[in-house]
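Service request form, structural biology core

Requester: graduate student, group of Dr. S.
Request type: structure prediction, single chain
Budget code: on file
Notes: please return the result as structure tokens.

Sequence provided:
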Amino acid sequence: MTHDFHRIRRLPPYVFEEVNRIKAALRAQGVDIIDFGMGNPDMPTPQHIVDKLIETVQKPKAHGYSASKGVIGLRRAMAGYYERRFGVKLNPETEVVATLGSKEGFANLAQALTAPGDVIICPNPAYPIHAYGFIMAGGVIRHVPALSPEAYLSGISRAVKHSVPPPSVLIVSYPSNPTAQWVDLDFYKDVIALAKKHDMLVLSDIAYSEIYFDDNPPPSILQVEGAMDIAVEVNSLSKTYAMAGWRVGMVVGNARICAALARVKSYLDYGAFTPIQVAAAAALNGPQDCVDEIRATYKSRRDVLVKSMKQAGWDIPSPPASMFAWAPIPEQFREAGSMLFAKLLIEEAGVAVAPGLGFGEYGEGYVRIGLVENEHRIRQAARNVKKFLAQSGQLLSRERDNLPIAAQ
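Core staff response, request fulfilled:
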């Protein structure tokens, strides 16, 4: 008997899989791939955080089940971070939930908040879990173009007007993955006012809050008066402290939403391994010069990427925040689309990027470049790209010749 699994049917084939398959095959052949495709921090976790993990893991009592919503020490540390960084006071008992990373936290939030058929307003392009977390929970996504914060904000009212039933949740994510854009507090004031007007909850993803390159750090939506009435924020230690594999995130804000999330999590997990939670608290409570160093490394890589690629013939806008550049496809490959461009780039230049189509239909025409290779490798990639662009006519002609007759 063949079974069709309902939730799996709602998930399209993973767009990045084709590039990943080619990357794996080339590496198996010994080809050196400069990999900008995945947002996986390559810097080491700061030593004092690792030391705290080692210290705690040697205590026998730390090896039992942990707390699903996070040990109280970690939740207090998370509340302390929000008060220091944003001036937002949180009750660690009722307004903070520690999660197994921000991605898992977002997916669990979707399960907690969504009834079948609920309409969710989601930016497009966006990090895939923003839409598919709710799709897997039975929700219906109303995509709103978000190639700029202004375009997204102006599109929300139209989406509300033409959605049946009315949307129940509004998603915002700045600094954005993949577009690297960020917003000021006035944007969030407009979002909260709009959400209250239309009786929507707000989920704000701020996983890149500490990876910014201008003098003014990105704000939190919870700084807006009245935001705690309807909003929660998803945050993470993954990028801030180069702790991606540790899987430590947080959901903070509205107590009712946090309680719903905590209840769902209580059925799904026992929380992260206690020594990891203790080390995460040490990260938040300890010296923060390591965060400055990580941020400076990303900024230096960003500057090298933009300069060297421009010299190679590829103009990439300088991202103001996040660990990504959102790059328009070079003009000669524009009609080929992001998937074919990414495929040819890795096959011919040994450079892996993420096709923009993987972040939604409005991501077509772009690729995402992760700042996860060192400066030497970035310059090497630029040299490869220069040769690649010089062969664009020949490569595209070859691809056209290989097309089936019906597709020509």
